[in-house]
Amino acid sequence: MRAWLSATAYLLVFFPGTGQAQDIFEWAAAVNGSWGDNARWNKISGLGNPPPGVDDEARFNETGTYTVTFPSSVNSGELVVSAGNVTFRSAGTDQQYRLSQDAFVRDRSELTLGAAGDSLDLSSDLLWITRGGTVNILHGSEVSTGDALIASASLIVDGAESFFRAPGIAINSFDASGRLILRNGARGNLNGPVTLDALSTDAASLTVESGAELEFNATLRVGHPDGTDGSGGTVTATVAGGG
User: Fold this and answer.
1) Among the ranges given (17-26, 89-98, 147-156, 176-185), the one the predictor scored with the smallest mean pLDDT
2) CB crowding 41-50: b at 16 or more within 10 Å, else e
3) Rounded distance, CA 223 to CA 197, Å?
4) Is 97:72 a contact under the CB 8 Å cutoff?
5) Which residues 6+ apart lie within 8 Å of 115 measured at CB?
6) 223 Cβ neighbours under 8 A, 6+ residues apart
7) Cα→Cα distances 98→73, 113, 126, 163, 164, Å
8) Are residues 204 and 171 in contact, defined by beta-carbon separation less than 8 angstroms?
């Protein structure tokens, strides 16, 4: 895990760094639609036209439940999901959503990757799931990220062929539990430090269950990045019927 991630993660949970993008676009309403449909997007800033391009920020901040379909693979700069329950799915053939920067899922929003018969793969520089956010990796979807932070939030990898890969990950509880769960034949690969830190009385947990597999070539760290203990919460790493 990059050294600066654990050292600055606590600030970034509350003050997430964005603003690297060239142009900023937001999904206009909590309705289903295709990524490439210009009418589904509002331009917040910049000179370009929708949909978001390789250096642009894509925002999903509408309350409600809706699906964004990817007829082809796409590239953008940064992804920010901050409200509602949005599903990303391919259209018939499995597609990829590639980010040159970071993905943020926060503020009790939920991002689901994949629907029955249509997985969607996501890659990013870093993955930040914070402040009650949830990311679900389902239906054979795959997520590959440089490093990941789960802070008072959830990452759930569920189902055969669903896959999560990161060099390192920090799972923290600030004012709610932080958890990573692999289940029902899902797979994971962690090749860097794994930090479990209960910063409140809530739990920080990593669970592998019901036939899931986790390839773990890393050091498990418990406590703050400065080496001190957490603040009284429960820290657990569990394999229950895993592969």
Assistant:
1) 17-26
2) bebeebeeeb
3) 5
4) no
5) 67, 87, 89, 138, 139
6) 197, 229, 230
7) 8, 13, 12, 16, 15
8) yes
> 221-237 b/e with 16+ CB inside 10 Å = b?
beebbeeeebeebebeb
CB 91 within 8 A of CB 117: no
pLDDT 10s digits, 133-179: 999 999 999 999 999 999 999 999 999 999 999 999 999 988 889 99
C-alpha span between 167 and 192 (Å, rounded): 5
Q: Which of 31, 35, 39, 33 is nearest to 64 (CA)?
A: 31
Q: In whole angstroms, what is the distance from residue 243 CA to residue 239 CA?
A: 9
Burial 130-141 (b: 16+ CB within 10 A, else e): bbbbbbbbbbbb
Q: What is the pLDDT at residue 224? A: 55
The 10s digit of each residue's pLDDT in 98-125 is 999 999 999 999 999 999 999 999 999 9
Tokens matching residue 133: 């956010």
| pTM score | 0.90
Backbone angles phi, psi at 219, to 5 degrees: -95, 135
- CA torsion 18-74-60-184 (nearest 10°) is -100
| 167 cis-preceded (ω within 30 degrees of 0) | no
